[in-house]
Predict the structure.
Amino acid sequence: MRIVIAEDNVLLREGLILLLEDVGHEIVAVVGSGPEIVPALLEHRPDVAVLDVRLPPGFRDEGLRAAIEARRLVPGLPILVLSQYVEESYAAELLGQGASGVGYLLKDRVGHIEEFQDALDRVAAGGTALDPEVVSQLMSRRDPLDALSPREREVLGLMAQGLGNPTIATTLFITERSVSKHIGNILAKLNLPPSDSGSRRVLAVLAYLNA
C-alpha cells in the first residue's frame, strides 16, 4: 500500500516508517505539521493515511481537521488517526462524517504490531478500526444500552470495532449462530434497521453511539 504519515514525534515517526516498510508498504510522503497534510494527501492520493491528532503549530486538533478536510475533497479517503489519549469529541466528529475507511487508535496500540497492521488493512479496505478504549468510552455515555444484556454489550463493543461475525464468535468462544442472534437482539433493542451488509451494520451502530 501507498501510505502518507503525519507525525511530529521523531521516534514514533521513524518507528512507523520502519514498521510499515518492513512489511512491504511504500511511504510516499511524511509530514510533521497540520498545514502540510492536505497538500500531501491531494498530491499523492495514498491508499491510506496515518495521522496524529495533535500537530504543530497549535498541538490541538490539526490532524483531525486535516483528515476531515481531506475526506471532503477526496470522499472515502482511508484515514487512520492516532491519538495519545481517548478524546471523545475528536472521535465523534471524525465518525460523524461516516465511518467507512476510518480508524481511531491510541498510540500505544502501534506497539502491538499485528493489531496495528490489521487495523491499517481494514481501514484501507474501507472498513472501520476503533480502539477498544474509544468504543468503551462512547458506549459508557449511552443510557439506552442498559437494555442490553452483558453478552449483548460485549458483542456490540466488538461490532463497533469493525469485527465480523466469525471473529466475534472466536473472541467470545461462541458460535456464529449465537453471534447472529445477539446482533438481531441488539438491533431490535436499539431500534436500528437490520442490514445484510456488515459495513452498514457497523455504521448504524457507530451512528447510534455518537448520537
About this structure: Strands lie at 2-6, 26-31, 48-52, 79-83, 102-106, 128-130.
